[in-house]
Design brief:
It is built from three helices and no strands.
């Protein structure tokens, strides 16, 4: 898990650097913050639903684990799509 997060984090930083180098504009910042906000909202909502359905001490563990793998990939894809969009 740690290696995955390090690799995806490095890819994310490279994509952010390329986006900044290509020209930073307000749309890029809005899309980045909106994606992060959406991912945090999805995590909160999925944990809330899981804890309402499962009252054990481990409620929210599965959605959080899925989120830990999906969120960094979603952020990298968003950066890649924005980088490719600005090249058109």
């Amino acid at each position: 898990m740690g290696i995955f997060l390090i690799v995806v984090g490095v890819i994310f930083l490279v994509l952010v650097y390329k986006n900044v180098k290509a020209g930073l504009n307000p749309d890029w910042l809005i899309w980045t913050l909106a994606t992060i906000g959406m991912l945090v909202g999805v995590l909160y909502l999925s944990n809330y639903i899981d804890c309402k359905m499962n009252n054990s001490g481990y409620c929210g563990t599965v959605p959080t684990l899925i989120w830990m793998y999906a969120a960094p990939v979603a952020l990298c894809l968003m950066q890649l799509l924005y980088l490719k969009r600005s090249s058109f």
